[in-house]
Amino acid sequence: MSHVSLTKYDLEQIDVLVDGDLQEPFYSQLLLRIDQVPEGWKTCALAFLEQQALAKDFQQFRQEDFSRFNPEASHGGPRIGSLSHLSIEPVANPVKSPSPQPS
Q1: CB neighbours (10 Å) of residue 65?
Q2: Is 80 helix (H, G, I), strand (E, B) or coil?
Q3: Residues in Cβ contact with 97 at an 8 Å cutoff, skipping those fewer than 6 apart
Q4: Could you write out the DSSP letters of every residue in 40-60?
Q5: What's the mean pLDDT when you consider all of the chain?
Q6: Is 81 helix (H, G, I), strand (E, B) or coil?
Q7: How far is Cα 86 from Cα 80, in angstroms, rounded to an integer?
Q8: I want to staple 17 with a disulfide (CB 3.0 to 4.6 A). Which of 22, 29, 89, 93 is the partner?
Q9: What is the pLDDT of residue 93?
Q10: How far apart are CA 26 and CA 12, in angstroms?
Q11: Region for residue 76 given its phi and psi (left: phi exceeds 0; alpha: psi -120 to 50; beta: otherwise)
C-alpha cells in the first residue's frame, strides 16, 4: 500500500486558502484533494490555527512595540503622527517666485 500525502503545491494552496485568497476552481479542487489524503483535514485545520496564533502574536507585538516608542498612546495622549499639538498660522506675505526676465 502506497502512502498518499499532500504535495508541496497542496501545502502552498492551503496557505492561500487560509489567507482567504483561493479562488474557484482551485478552492474546490483543493478541498477534494484534502479529502483524499489521510490527515489532510488535520493539516488544513492546523494551518488555520497557526494563522490565528500568528495573527494574535503579531497584534500583541505591534501593540507592545507601539507603546514602547509612544508611551502616551496607552494613556490617551497624542498619537505618533498627530499634528494636533501644532499651531498653524497663515502666511501673511507668501514669497513669490521671480518672473522670468525678457531676453
Answers
A1: 10
A2: coil
A3: none
A4: HHHHHHHHHHHHHHHHHHHHH
A5: 78
A6: coil
A7: 13
A8: 22
A9: 57
A10: 12
A11: left
Q: Residue type for 15, please?
A: D
Give ∠ CA 82-88-92 in degrees, rounded to 5.
160
Q: Provide long-range contacts, Cβ within 8 A and 24+ apart, for 31-38.
A: 33/6, 34/6, 34/10, 36/4, 37/4, 37/5, 37/6, 37/10, 38/4, 38/5
- Rounded to 5 degrees, what are φ and ψ at 37? -100, 130
Identity of the residue numbered 80: I
DSSP secondary structure letter of residue 93: S
The CA–CA distances, whole Å, from 23 to 17, 26, 36, 87 equal 8, 6, 20, 51
Task: Single out the residue of 54, 49, 53, 35 nearest to residue 10, CA to CA.
Answer: 35
d(CA 18, CA 8): 15
In single-letter form, the type of residue at position 67 comes to: S
Output the CA–CA distances (angstroms, integers) from residue 22 to 25, 83, 91, in the order listed: 9, 41, 54
Cell matching residue 95? 514669497
pTM of this prediction exceeds 0.85: no
